Amino acid sequence: MPLPASARVDIERFWTTIERSGEIGVGRPGGLSRLALGDADKEIRDLFVAWCREAGLTVRIDAIGNIFARRAGQDDTLPPVMMGSHLDTQVNGGRFDGIAGVLGGLEVIRTLDAIGHRTRRPLELVNWTNEEGGRFSPPMVGSGVFTGVYTLDWAQERRDDDGKSMGEELQRVSYAGEAQAAPPPLDAYFEFHIEQGPILDREGFQVGVVTGGYASTGTIVEFRGETAHTGPWPMEKRRNALAAGARLLTAVDDLGWEFAGSGGKATAARLVAWPNKPGIISDWAQVTCDVRHADPEAAAVMAERMLRAAHEAAARASCGIEILDTWRWGGKVFAEEMIGLVRETSLALGYRTRDILSQAGHDAYFLARDTPSAMIFAPCKNGITHNNNELSTREDLEPGLNVLLRAVVARADR
Amino acid sequence: MPLPASARVDIERFWTTIERSGEIGVGRPGGLSRLALGDADKEIRDLFVAWCREAGLTVRIDAIGNIFARRAGQDDTLPPVMMGSHLDTQVNGGRFDGIAGVLGGLEVIRTLDAIGHRTRRPLELVNWTNEEGGRFSPPMVGSGVFTGVYTLDWAQERRDDDGKSMGEELQRVSYAGEAQAAPPPLDAYFEFHIEQGPILDREGFQVGVVTGGYASTGTIVEFRGETAHTGPWPMEKRRNALAAGARLLTAVDDLGWEFAGSGGKATAARLVAWPNKPGIISDWAQVTCDVRHADPEAAAVMAERMLRAAHEAAARASCGIEILDTWRWGGKVFAEEMIGLVRETSLALGYRTRDILSQAGHDAYFLARDTPSAMIFAPCKNGITHNNNELSTREDLEPGLNVLLRAVVARADR
Question: Domain of A287: which CATH number?
Answer without folding.
Answer: 3.30.70.360
